[in-house]
Amino acid sequence: MQVTIIETLKRLEQVRSVLRSLPVADIATALERIARYWLNEAAPERRQVLTELPQRLPFSRPVCERALNALFEPMTAERMLRLLDEQLGDRRVLDAFVLRPNGVRRKAFGANAALLILAGNIPGIGIWDIAFCLLCKTPVLVKPSSDEPLLPSLFAQSLAAVAPELADTVVTLLPTETDIGALLTDAVEAVIVYGTDETVATVKRQVLAKVRVIERGHRISVAIIAEEFTDERTAELLALDIARFDQRGCLSPQICFVVGRGAGDAGQELGQKLAKALERVSAELPTNLREGEKASVAQFRLTCEMLGATVLASSDASWTVAIWDGERGTEGWRKVACSARVVHLVAMPSLSAVMDTLRPMGKFLQGVALATDEATAEQMAEALGQIGASRICPVGQLQAPPMEWSQDGKHLVAELVRWCDLEPIALPPKESGWVEVFCGKEERALLLRAALEGRGIPVSLQSEVDPTDPTVPLQRLFVPAPYADDARQVLATLNDH
Q1: 357 in Cβ contact with 331 (< 8 Å)
Q2: Best CA proximity match to 437, nearest among 471, 395, 484, 389
């Protein structure tokens, strides 16, 4: 439901305490119920999304349908609770202070509220972020993209109908609302922002210093394929990665490096196989390009050919493969950006050459899809992680990340919470150290000492003299503070006799 800012802030105060009172297991169960609802083909919200999204975004209905299924299928209560155990050590820390091995109890507190600023480049972006916020007992203000305000709004609307315990915990704002500063009240402790680097920088300038900003800015992904893996199966898997979101997501493989001494010939062969695979995939997942995007594809093809690439393309603008081989071609691909189901296929003589190429773009590197033997993959993982990659996976899986993956190198659950430690509250005794229980003549002191030690009470004896008569010796008896009361009882008993 879309509301004004004033209404949003009032509602926020009302739902925060309700959300915090819910056991996290109940929240996970409610989210699973919502997910199952959205997977039902008869759900009116799902039908509306699949009807209207292709009109709003340059994606066909099959692409949007697959995107919805990929979003909601992993959202089971068991899997979400297991994720919390993984990220926080124990899901129960969101409900109560939990005892740790060191004797200290610890609790995780979600933000009072999170502001989620969405981009509209791919369908369904932000749905997992909303789920993670709710699992951390954090209500969410969603500022959707003006390109795609539909799915976030309908998802929030479905909460009230299917999971009333979560009603009003997600509030969508009008997509035209641009005054981010008005949303940054004291209640908003976290901001999750998707968009270009310029968008992220603009938001950060408006955020108070103590507000956590989780950035989802510009990222790129690549594929690396060893020459011995340039077969039809790899081509089919790579085509699926390319086609799923038409190269618009942070996990879209814009560049595919073919590696080996014969990479030039292998790249040409893979290019031919990839072209056929993309043609087949396009029948299952057709594109839905606007006229302006079709013109951009035509310009991409022409520019790549002028720079020395071999260009394989569909008869329309559905797909394009630019194959770069040789010294001239290896450099030319850097000058042409990818979009709308186009990909660069670049021959590289060695893995070290690939790493040298990726290193300068490390801060933008998100995912890497591999088609290599397992030993090579393990060897590459360390170097790719050092460069900046946050996800390394088999080719064909790049556009289908698991719910547990650490986007941009961090998981939102861990980013959202702050911790409070409760140490044992054991006050020291009123008296500590050694306590004096007797001061008197030596004969009496020795008698009392024997009596106390006979009852297992440690005794320390100090000799002094009577200040009024230096010729008279005095003895002082001390016992540890925990034994003081017992010692006094013993002495009182002896004095009575």
Answers
A1: no
A2: 484
- Which one-letter DSSP state was computed for residue 409? G
CA distance 172 to 266: 50
Residue 291's SS3 state is helix
Q: How many C-beta atoms lie closer than 10 Å to residue 229's C-beta?
A: 20
Q: What is the CB-side half-sphere exposure of residue 203 using CA atoms within 13 A?
A: 27
- List the 310-313 sheet strands across, edge first: 310-313, 320-324, 342-348, 253-259, 220-226, 365-371, 391-394
Pairing mode of beta strands 469-480, 460-466: antiparallel
Task: State the Cα–Cα distance between residues 433 and 298, nearest whole angstrom.
Answer: 87
Mind listing the pLDDT tens digit for each residue in 4-60?
A: 666 676 777 778 888 999 999 999 999 999 999 999 999 999 999 999 999 888 888
Exposure class string for 235-263: b at 16+ Cβ within 10 A, else e: bbbbbbbbbbbbbbbbbbbbbbbbbbeeb
Counting beta carbons within 10 angstroms of the beta carbon of residue 409, is it exposed (0 to 12), middle (13 to 18) or buried (19 or more)? exposed
Output helix, strand, coil percentages for the chain, rounded to the nearest 5: 50, 20, 30
DSSP structure class, residue 168: T
| Cβ atoms 424, 102 nearer than 8 A | no
Residue 380, Cβ neighbours under 10 Å: how many? 20
Over residues 240-277, the pLDDT tens digits come to 999 988 888 889 899 999 998 877 888 899 999 999 99
Residue 174 CA from chain centroid, whole number: 26
Q: State the average pLDDT for the chain.
A: 88
Q: Are the CB atoms for 319 and 242 separated by under 8 Å? A: yes
Encoded amino acid at 445, one letter: A
For residue 283, give the H/E element and its range.
helix 263-284
pLDDT at 480 over 60: yes
| pTM score of the predicted model | 0.81
Q: Give the containing element (helix H, strand E) for 269.
A: helix 263-284
- Helical ranges in 365-470 per DSSP H: 374-387, 412-416, 442-454
